[in-house]
Amino acid sequence: MINIKSEREIDLMRETCRIASSCLDHLESHIQAGMSTEDINTLAHDYITSQEAWPSPLNYHGFPKSVCTSKNEVICHGIPDPKVKIEEGDIINVDVTTYYKKFHGDTNRTFLVGKVLPEIQKLVEVTYQCMMAAIAIVRPGAHLGDIGAVIQEMAHDNGFSVVEEYCGHGIGREFHEAPQILHYGKKGTGTEMKPGMTFTIEPMINLGKKHCRLLDDGWTVVTKDGSWSAQFEHTILVTESGNGHEILTLSSQNHSKEHGHGPIS
Ligand code: MF3
Ligand code: CO
Ligand code: CO
Predict the structure, then answer these.
(1) In the structure, which protein residues have their CB atom closer than 6 angstroms to any atom of ligand 1?
(2) Is the dihedral of CA 193, 195, 199, 200 positive or negative?
(3) Radius of gyration from C-alpha coordinates of the chain
(4) pTM of the complete model
(5) Which tens digits make up the pLDDT trace of 185-201?
(6) Which of 61, 113, 199, 242 is 20 to 30 Å from the Cα of 10, by its Cα?
(7) Atom in ligand 1 nearest the alpha carbon of residue 219
(8) Residue 252: exposure state from Cβ atoms within 10 A (0-12, 13-18, ≥19)
(9) How far apart are CA 180 and CA 104, in angstroms?
(10) In the prediction, which pLDDT does 258 show?
(11) Beta strands 221-223 and 74-76: pairing type?
(12) Phi and psi for 247 in degrees, rounded to 5?
């Protein structure tokens, strides 16, 4: 069952999502080469709790940290670790989920650390464009399958592949609710979107092949072929008015800062 949020619930979703996106803004201005992913976790944890929110990942099905930090060939769910440093040329995705007044808000960005190889820059840029192109088709009456179709087409046109084992999801009082939002698929298939639905779109795009592998820690997902992988995530509300959607986790800062062009170390 896909639950439809009331006006009051939507307002609370806006609040938690604003904290999540401003946490990413905060990280973006502090992340630099030489830091560990544990340092990023500490920055995020302290920021989120300073806003009187709670980091949803902490102890979620046993996840040991407050955010996911996924570097280079790590696709998602990387565990912050003092031994893992970020260096010039790396890409680092930080996935922030906040719990505030009983609602979750979920967003992630991939940051470039200093100067990154052109093909990697392109991977990050195309991944962002895949997410934004998918968001653009969200409106009442569109089908959930349309999201995956748009993402897949754009990724393949650029010679990249789409991870299929992990997907977007409904979100609200629960971190992960129905429906599943696949990042591949066929136009016109799947459930019709309705006003008041809230879900994430969070494509994971690989430079090489689509296949992934789970590490022994039970969380870290890496590409099977070792190629690098990028991801962006927004939490979206389907609306009756306007263009049919509202991006609840949009940065209140300069919009271009979402592109993963920072930080320059
Ligand atoms: N934030 C991730 C998502 O986008 C989920 C992380 S689950 C965790 O759905 F346990 F690893 F934190
Ligand atoms: Co998510
Ligand atoms: Co997330």
Answers:
(1) 57, 60-61, 63, 68, 77, 95, 97, 106, 200, 202, 219, 233
(2) positive
(3) 17
(4) 0.97
(5) 999 999 999 999 999 99
(6) 61
(7) 11
(8) exposed
(9) 16
(10) 60
(11) antiparallel
(12) -85, 105
Question: In sequence order, which residues have a C-beta less than 8 Å from that of residue 100 and are 6 or more positions away?
Answer: 12, 15, 16, 19, 51, 52, 53, 54
Tokens encoding 169: 């999801």
Q: Which two tokens stand for residue 136?
A: 């653009």
Ligand 2 centroid from CA 106, angstroms: 5
Write down the mean pLDDT value for the chain. 96
pLDDT (0 to 100) of residue 90? 98
Q: Coil, strand or helix: which one is 208?
A: coil
**Ligand 2 centroid – CA 136 distance (Å):** 18
Which residues, by Cβ under 5 Å, contact ligand 2, an ion? 106, 200
Query: Given CA atoms 205, 223, 84, 80 in this order, what sign does their dihedral have?
Result: positive
**Nearest protein Cα to ligand 1, atom 4:** 106
Looking at the CA of 221, which ligand is closest?
A: 1
10 Å CB burial of residue 187 (0-12, 13-18, 19+) is middle
pLDDT in tens, 206-245: 999 999 999 999 999 999 999 999 999 999 999 999 999 9
Task: For residue 191, give both structure tokens.
Answer: 């459930």
Secondary structure (3-state) at 214: strand
Residue type, 27: L
What are the residues facing 177 on neighbouring strands?
Answer: 170
Dist. CA 114 → ligand 2 center (Å): 27
Is the confidence at residue 260, as pLDDT, over 90?
no
What do you get for the CA distance between the two ends of the chain, in Å?
A: 46
